[in-house]
Structures are given as structure tokens and as C-alpha cells.
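On to my pick:
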Amino acid sequence: MCRIDPKLHEQEVKKIGCSTVVMRGRNYKGYIHVQEENLKQENDFEHWIELALDFNEQLTSKGK
């Protein structure tokens, strides 16, 4: 599961092996589940890490 900028959610969730995280029947925009088989290539894994880190930086800079 990756937490990304909700503005990017719709474009990223369209990728093969990706789906919106659902908890207690509620869709969580900005939270994407990526199937493990879609992370086998290093550049695929790095893509999701970068998105998550970029969004994390946005969140932490708002608190300053």
C-alpha cells in the first residue's frame, strides 16, 4: 500500500495491478494497493517510493 498525493490518485490507480484501498467499505483516495507482482522491476518499485516520499514531504512541509 502506498499513500500518494490524492491529486494523482485517478491516474495512478489505472495502472495494471493497482486498486484503491478500501477499509470498512470506504474508498480512500490517495491510498493505492499495488500487487506484489507489479513491483518486481526496480524502476516500478522506485516509482511508488518516489510518489510516497514526495507526498510525505508535502505533508511535513505544511506543518512547518
User: Anything to note?
Assistant: Residues 3 and 31 are 5 Å apart (CA to CA). The chain has one domain: 2-62. The chain has a mean pLDDT of 92. The beta strands are 2-3, 18-23, 26-34.
